[in-house]
Design goal:
D-Maltodextrin-Binding Protein, domain 2; 18 helices; 415 residues; 7-stranded mixed β-sheet; binds alpha-D-glucopyranose; alpha/beta; 13 strands
Length: 415
């Protein structure tokens, strides 16, 4: 287990020690574990719920935002059938794994009103035809760019990688800035970025191609790796990108040190926030692609599920309904920039007034794709992470990485 997973486990361990005593004796305590929300909206919602529900006390257990850290901590925790955490916020890629392991329970009939949710997020909470969680917020990879600098140089927002490189050369290089920062560390975020690069060159790792036409799948992987390597080799991306996660890359962008950034929608409210050096200067666009191809964004996002081991499932479900309800989604969208999963929220005047950029996101959301949805996803992710990262750090040739990746994925897919 790595250091960050250890920190996450420590969060849980601390909870086990302190979390059992509630301030009012006799109160039922519900623990909700989710990634830290820097906007404070989630905590405020929890306080609001507690004030309106005497006898119940919900505790928000903020976890380190990194998805792998949370995953490893939860897996260790749930394998031991620990019951202190009642509700988990789960990455969209974990539903199948957690449902199959029996760690989360199917939601009661009628808990989810399917027609109210966006289709992609709803699919992500479904395993073998049953709903196991409620979609909470959705994500898709976005290209952030410095509107001011492109405009000043008379350079249009690039749609192809060729134009993108030119923009980096003409606008970033003379200013001594980085051209492009993204998530290149060996973790789940790299899988998201890699798939976007892969799709943008016309490649795919879908099951039919991997199993039936492995050579074709390999060709796409080699081209995508070539594209990624070209960024670091040409200096468009700093070498440090190979250790960056979301926040490392985000910081460089909001500090004004990079022309382009690939990241998730949450970055927008930070870009426009008080600590940002580029307030009012950024724009959002779909990611570029190779001439003749289309770009796709990886779908991300988080859901909320009820633990099989919860000792208070009824109270936990009531809070689950609140935290994934319209009021909560609106507040988190307005204050934290989180993209709601309830369709109606996108027509809400307050949400749109606070997030005029949601209109630009709708262009990005037109072309999105999922990572593989499988109970074996963690192994698949690991294979992709390892081979991509080793190729980027020149430990192995892209051809070798591609062949190994496709062969190992095919083995899992054939199981
Ligand atoms: C974001 C996405 C999540 C993805 C993760 C990768 O949190 O919502 O789906 O797995 O980033 O770092």
């Amino acid at each position: 287990m790595n250091t960050t997973s250890l920190i996450a486990l420590c969060c849980i361990a601390a909870l086990l020690v302190t979390g059992c005593s509630s301030p009012e004796s006799g109160d039922i305590q519900i623990v909700f574990a989710a990634g830290n929300d820097p906007s404070g909206a989630t905590e405020a919602l929890v306080d609001e719920y507690n004030a309106a529900h005497p006898g119940v006390r919900v505790k928000f257990q903020a976890m380190p935002a990194n998805t792998d850290t949370q995953h490893d901590a939860y897996v260790t925790y749930l394998s031991a059938r620990e019951s202190t955490i009642d509700l988990y916020s789960l990455d969209v890629i974990w539903t199948a794994e957690f449902a199959r392991a029996g760690w989360i329970v199917p939601l009661p009939e009628g808990h989810i009103r399917a027609d109210e949710f966006l289709g992609g997020p709803l699919e992500s909470v479904t395993y073998e035809g049953t709903f196991y969680a409620v979609p909470w917020f959705t994500d898709a990879g976005v290209l952030y760019y410095r509107k001011d600098l492109l405009e000043e140089a008379g350079v249009p927002v690039p749609e192809t990688w060729t134009d993108f490189r030119r923009a980096c050369r003409e606008v970033a290089e003379p200013r001594g800035m980085d051209g492009f920062v993204w998530q290149g560390a060996r973790y789940e975020g790299l899988v998201c970025d890699f798939l976007e690069f892969l799709w943008s060159v016309g490649g795919t790792l879908d099951e039919t191609t991997v199993v039936e036409r492995p050579k074709e799948a390999e060709r796409g992987v080699i081209e995508a790796l070539g594209l990624m390597i070209s960024f670091t080799e040409s200096g468009i991306s700093p070498n440090g990108v190979l250790t960056y996660k979301e926040e490392d890359s985000r910081r460089l962008f909001t500090e004004g040190q990079s022309l382009f950034l690939r990241n998730w929608p949450y970055v927008w409210s930070i870009t426009e926030g008080e600590g940002s050096k580029i307030n009012g200067l950024a724009g959002i666009a779909p990611l570029p692609h190779v001439e003749g191809q289309t770009s796709y964004s990886t779908i991300g996002g988080w859901n909320v599920a009820l633990s099989t081991y919860s000792k208070h499932p009824d109270e936990a479900l009531d809070f689950l309904r609140f935290i994934t309800g319209e009021r909560s989604m609106k507040k988190r969208a307005i204050e934290g920039g989180y993209l709601p999963t309830l369709a109606s929220t996108y027509e809400d005047a307050d949400v749109l007034a606070a997030n005029p950029h949601f209109a630009s996101f709708s262009e990005v959301f037109q072309n999105t794709r999922n990572r593989p949805r499988s109970p074996h996803y963690p192994r698949m992710s690991d294979i992709i992470q390892e081979n991509v990262h080793r190729a980027l750090t020149h430990e192995i040739e892209p051809g070798v990485a591609a062949a190994d990746m496709v062969r190992e994925l095919a083995e899992i897919m054939a199981e």
